[in-house]
UniProtKB/TrEMBL annotation:
Organism for this UniProt entry: Acrocarpospora phusangensis
Protein name stated in the entry: DNA helicase
Pfam families per record: PDDEXK_1, UvrD_C
Entries under InterPro entries matching the protein: DNA_helicase_UvrD-like_C, DNA_helicase_UvrD/REP, P-loop_NTPase, PDDEXK-like_dom_sf, PDDEXK_AddAB-type
Taxon lineage: Bacteria, Bacillati, Actinomycetota, Actinomycetes, Streptosporangiales
GO terms, molecular function: 3'-5' DNA helicase activity; ATP binding; DNA binding; exonuclease activity
Organism domain of life: Bacteria
Cellular component GO terms held in the UniProt record: cytosol; DNA helicase complex
């Protein structure tokens, strides 16, 4: 809810909120330890609080010398004076939930940090109160919807059009479906409360209602396919994009099972692929396409507009149907290359480009500025310079971590950060990345590798693979089967590698923590901890991807280096392993070849610079805590989920 339309913040905002709640709790604990009474809640009215400076708002709870202001609002303020003691060391999840249940927990936070949680907490309170009054699910929903203020916001965004308008349309459609469903639910079970409604919703595996296409009411434009227009009529009909290759589309379209061939054969047509048969088929398709075009063109009662584009230098050509429709009477208009789309965002972009281009004539720029001002007044998105990213101030230039924060880093994060710190911050802190099928496949292979390491027979491994396989969504049966084959190959490679591995397996899937310094810890999980012939630890990381590091890069492979450093710092002391004897990647995926490929990094103590891994971790920890994250082009840019926000990409650059 915090990162959705109500809270309207992002993962950084949530992270900041968690941290501020922790600081507020620590400060309140300290105050309580000194015997100061701790008051929770914000007794002062809203305007006074929003005027609080950053320093003031970060102060401890009010003390006796600095008593809380008298209550100014209703009964809630009475509650607000209740002491929150005794405090306990709650987890940040618990603090967050408590704050959403009771917004008084947010009283000591900076207003802009607390605002998203306050919005969510207020709405939850409205829902709770409505439910307490035994209102029906529909009434509770209505109260929440009214209090959310989303109705006005989404309606104006929807009216403004563009991608955001389309999203607002979808959101409004979703709300309409929800209300529809609630109304039907209340008709069906008038006595059931909101809990039953929620259970009912959660239990639905297939949505009970859908927004099937409906005829628009009154004056509206209908956009539909030629097929769907059969039997209907309108005063004005526009048949757009009548291009050769699109209409007629003479590509052979067969079904997977070829039933149309079966029909042809049963009608007596010969079953062969001669040119004569192909030509007959093409001519039949052309007739069908012509009939369909005729259907579309005859839907108009008064006026028919047919459009197509083409040019001498262009590959596009108007359809032959167009000249058949009006031989020699086509009306043509020349389009300037620089012509803009007839859309509001394109107009705004054009005006902005003109205003910001010093090479354009001054009167033109002034005229564009006047138009922009008019559009901004009408709340057209992007027209107001206050919303131009290039002109806005940074909302927050503080470092990501506070000076006394403990930076906890994982070995894989060190590697990701080293490759590109911008991608790391966008994927890790903001959540721009998304789990891919290959990542899920990797998770399954790791789970099977643990079972294989316990000497389970191959049949048991395959049966386990069957059990968990359906959890993955491959989008198509054929792809599912292909991936299943890939998974089985990886398991076979692993089993062969495991059987020939001379080292002793000490622990699979082992979690560890290692303290690097007062403010830096390494925390993570290794796939396998093994012991070599000299009693040293060798850490194994199983890889299932299609790329692998070059052999000459292994000596400075960040993830392997951090594993070795963690070993040196006592991460696996409980197994009697304190000396790193190296670390290795075991490639099982496409990167492997026929057999698994082990890529080894030598022991840190044998390296000419044994301190390189520690230096790397220290540098990365400082970088992760800073306020500057640099985009660094690397092999992963092609598949980077953050590239639309990355300045090194055409689509991610900053625009005026
Ligand atoms: Fe970094 Fe490349 Fe992603 Fe940009 S596209 S954030 S440079 S990984």
């Amino acid at each position: 809810m915090l990162t959705g339309p109500v809270g309207a913040t992002d993962m950084i905002g949530v992270r900041r909120l968690r941290r501020a709640l922790r600081v507020a709790e620590n400060e309140a604990l300290a105050a309580a330890a000194q015997g100061d009474p701790v008051i929770v809640g914000d007794p002062s009215p809203e305007p006074a609080r929003s005027a609080t400076t950053e320093k003031e708002s970060a102060r401890p709870a009010p003390t006796e010398e600095e008593p809380a202001q008298p209550a100014t609002t209703e009964a809630d303020d009475e509650e607000a004076r209740q002491p929150m003691l005794p405090f306990g060391m709650r987890s940040s999840d618990e603090m967050l939930i408590a704050a959403l249940r009771d917004e008084r927990e947010l009283a000591l936070l900076e207003p802009h940090v607390a605002a998203p949680a306050e919005r969510v907490a207020k709405l939850l309170k409205v829902a709770r109160e409505a439910a307490r009054k035994s209102q029906t699910a529909e009434e509770v929903l209505w109260d929440v919807w009214q209090a959310s203020g989303l109705s006005d916001r989404w309606t104006s965004t929807s009216l403004a059009g563009g991608p955001r308008g389309a999203q607002a349309d979808r959101d409004l459609d979703g709300v309409v479906s929800l209300f529809d469903y609630a109304a039907k639910f209340v008709d069906r079970l008038p006595k059931a409360g909101i809990e039953v409604f929620l259970d009912d919703l959660v239990a639905q595996e297939i949505p009970a209602t859908s927004l099937a296409a409906q005829a628009p009411d009154g004056e509206a434009v209908r956009i539909l396919t030629a097929h769907r227009s059969k039997g209907l009529e309108w005063d004005v009909v526009v048949v757009a994009g009548v291009q050769e290759g699109v209409w007629p589309d003479l590509r052979l379209r067969g079904s997977l099972l070829g039933t149309e061939t079966l029909v042809e054969v049963s009608d007596g047509s010969p079953l062969d692929g001669t040119d004569a048969v192909k030509a007959a088929l093409g001519s039949k398709m052309l007739s069908e396409e012509r009939r369909l075009f005729y259907v579309a063109a005859t839907r108009a009662r008064r006026k028919l507009v047919v459009t197509a584009v083409g040019g001498e230098d262009a590959e596009e050509r108007p359809s032959r149907f167009l000249s058949e429709l009006m031989p020699g009477e086509l009306e043509t208009a020349t389009v300037d290359d620089r012509a803009r789309w007839l859309s509001m965002p394109a107009l705004v972009a054009d005006l902005r480009a003109t205003v910001c281009d010093p090479s354009r004539p001054e009167p033109l720029r002034r005229a564009a500025a006047r138009h922009l001002a008019r559009l901004a007044e009408a709340n057209i998105p992007g027209a107001d310079p206050k919303t131009w990213y290039a002109l806005t101030e940074l909302s927050d230039d503080r470092p990501l971590a506070w000076p006394d924060d403990i930076v906890s880093i994982s070995p894989s994060a060190v590697e990701n950060f080293t490759k590109c710190s911008l991608r790391w911050v966008l994927e890790t802190a903001v959540g721009a990345g998304s789990a891919s099928v290959s990542q899920s496949l990797g998770t399954i292979i790791h789970a099977i590798a643990v079972l294989a390491a316990e000497d389970n027979p191959v049949d048991a491994l395959n049966s386990r693979l069957d059990d968990i396989w359906h959890e993955l969504d491959f989008g198509g049966l054929w792809f599912n089967r292909k991936q299943r084959h890939v998974a089985e190959q990886m398991v076979e490679r692993f089993l062969r590698w495991h059987a020939e591995n001379p080292r002793e397996l000490i622990a699979p899937e082992e979690a560890f923590t290692a303290v690097v310094s007062e403010n830096v810890i390494i925390k993570g999980r290794v796939d396998r901890v093994e012991r070599d012939g000299e009693g040293r630890a060798v850490i194994i990381d199983i890889k299932t991807g299609s790329s692998k590091p070059k052999d000459d890069e292994l000596n400075r492979h960040p993830q392997l280096g951090v594993y070795q450093l963690a070993t040196l710092l006592g991460a696996f002391k409980r197994h009697g392993l304190v000396e790193p004897g190296g670390a290795a990647l075991v490639q099982l995926g496409k990167a492997a070849g026929k057999d698994a490929k082990e890529q080894r990094q030598g022991a840190l103590s044998d390296d000419a610079e044994p301190g390189w891994a520690e230096d790397l971790v220290t540098t990365v920890a400082a970088g992760m805590s800073s306020q500057l994250f640099v985009a660094k082009v690397n092999d992963g840019c092609r598949t980077c989920a953050a590239k639309i926000s990355c300045p090194v990409n055409d689509s991610g650059g900053q625009v005026c």
